[in-house]
Design goal:
Layout: E1 12-15, H1 19-29, E2 35-38, E3 54-58, H2 59-67, E4 80-82, E5 84-89, E6 95-99, E7 109-113, H3 114-126, E8 131-134, E9 139-144, E10 149-153, E11 158-161, E12 163-166, H4 173-177, E13 184-198, E14 205-211, E15 214-220, E16 226-233, H5 235-243, H6 246-256, E17 264-267, E18 271-279, E19 284-285, E20 288-290, E21 296-297, H7 305-325, H8 333-362, H9 366-381, H10 383-393
Parallel strand pairs: 1-2, 1-12, 2-8, 5-14, 12-20
Antiparallel strand pairs: 3-7, 4-7, 5-6, 9-10, 10-11, 13-16, 13-17, 13-18, 14-15, 15-16, 18-21, 19-20
Helix pairs in contact: 1-3, 1-7, 2-7, 7-8
């Protein structure tokens, strides 16, 4: 079937209209591939009020968002920059510091509200011909054929495409309909999130303190006294934090952070989300691919979840556009397996690293506490090792797609 025979509703159906799905659509449509986004949420759902969730965006992810025409839609006064990082342990004297100048970079990354990123990605989609959006719409069945995939929605609408992509989060409906298993491990923790104003300025430094119940991070936002909070803690403690009045909560938060930024003078809406580790057994089938949380979820202690999803989107887009421009079938299993081989290994490495850090800092054994504090101090003195860690965490190293390097915008 040639490209000019318009018997499909789109070349690619993307189920999930969040950050990862919209970014993938933007990258594909910019190269002439017709995309249809199917999103379960109604337009504007979840965008009311202040968002307690903030995301750390790496330099690689920023390049990907620029290639998808999303970055320019972010208001400058809502983009926080972090030029350094400080990490220390509650149960010892070990600490480590990172500085972007050691990499000859102006910054290590950005801190941005999740809803602002999603809105910017949608606005970027709006200026690229070839992207349609259907919402609210929920998948009911999916059927794979030799030359097409058919998606039936709950309202009876039937859609066809060459390829369908699941970008619909950790509880992916498309993954479920395709029968792909996704073993999950419950961390028995919740990610507590809010935005706060502190007595002292954050100096564009991201700070993380490893507490007995889990890591507490203050992430610098655009305002010099405003930080996004991500606190991985027990469900019991998260419930207690949610139940506190603002004054009590502010005092408890400042004390837990050892008053590193002085008193917490104001705090916004609070939310908590259960944490788990999950990894799909397959990233693809003939005419199907999974990206982002539909394929994997990780612990938030290093803020890599959204960045891994954006790297998935950029890698899949690179492979699909290469096949498209070479006249090959973009839904063929042989094409999609290249994406799976590429991203599954990279994601598994990051997931295992995060799991190791989580176990290391969760241990209450005195010997382990002593060793990890010694380790923090040793790494802090080893500049080549620190630079390697910073390059990897900032998305400047690894087997990355071209868009992550700012190539082919």
């Amino acid at each position: 079937m040639t490209r000019t025979q318009k018997t499909f509703d789109a070349d690619v159906i993307i189920v999930g209209g969040g950050l990862t799905g919209c970014t993938l659509a933007g990258l594909l449509a910019a190269r002439g591939i017709q995309c249809l986004i199917v999103e379960a949420r109604a337009p504007g759902a979840g965008r009311q009020g202040n968002d307690p969730r903030v995301l750390a965006v790496t330099l690689a992810s920023a390049n990907i968002l620029k290639a998808a025409r999303a970055w320019k839609h972010l208001p400058e006064d809502r983009v926080g920059v972090f030029r350094g990082m400080q990490v220390w342990d509650e149960n010892g004297n070990g600490d480590i510091e990172f500085d972007s100048t050691e990499l000859c970079e102006a910054t290590l990354g950005y801190i941005i509200e999740q809803t602002m990123l999603e809105l910017a990605a949608e606005q970027g989609n709006g200026e690229i011909p070839g992207i349609k959006r259907l919402q609210p719409a929920t998948p009911a069945t999916v059927k794979f054929e030799n030359s097409a995939v058919r998606l039936e929605l709950q309202d009876g609408t039937c859609l066809t495409a060459r390829l369908i992509v699941g970008a619909d989060g950790g509880r992916s409906r498309i993954r479920e309909l395709a029968g792909i298993a996704c073993p999950a491990y419950d961390y028995h923790q919740q990610a507590f999130a809010c935005v706060v104003e502190t007595e002292l300025v954050h100096e564009s430094i991201a700070r993380q303190r490893f507490l007995t119940e889990g890591p507490l991070a203050f992430l610098p936002m655009a305002d010099p006294r405003t930080s996004g909070i991500v606190w991985s803690t027990s469900p019991r403690h998260a419930g207690e934090l949610l139940a506190m009045d603002e004054t009590e909560f502010n005092q408890a938060l400042a004390a837990a952070f050892a008053y590193r930024l002085g008193a917490v003078v104001r705090s916004g809406p609070r939310a908590a989300f259960p944490l788990q580790h999950a990894h799909a057994e397959r990233y693809c089938l003939p005419r199907l691919a999974l990206v982002g949380d539909a394929a994997h979820t990780v612990h938030p202690l290093a803020g890599q979840g959204a960045n891994l999803g954006l790297l998935d989107a950029a890698a899949l887009a690179e492979i699909i556009t290469g096949a498209w421009e070479g006249g090959r079938d973009i839904g063929a299993y042989g094409v999609l397996r290249r994406y799976e081989r590429w991203r599954r290994g990279e994601n598994l490495l990051m997931m295992k690293t995060m799991q190791s850090f989580k176990c290391l800092f969760a241990s209450r054994l005195r010997s382990v506490r002593c060793l990890r504090n010694i380790g923090l101090d040793l790494v802090d003195m080893m500049d080549p090792v620190k630079r390697l860690i910073m390059r990897r965490a900032s998305g400047l190293a690894g087997d990355l797609p071209r868009a992550a390097y700012g190539i082919g915008k």
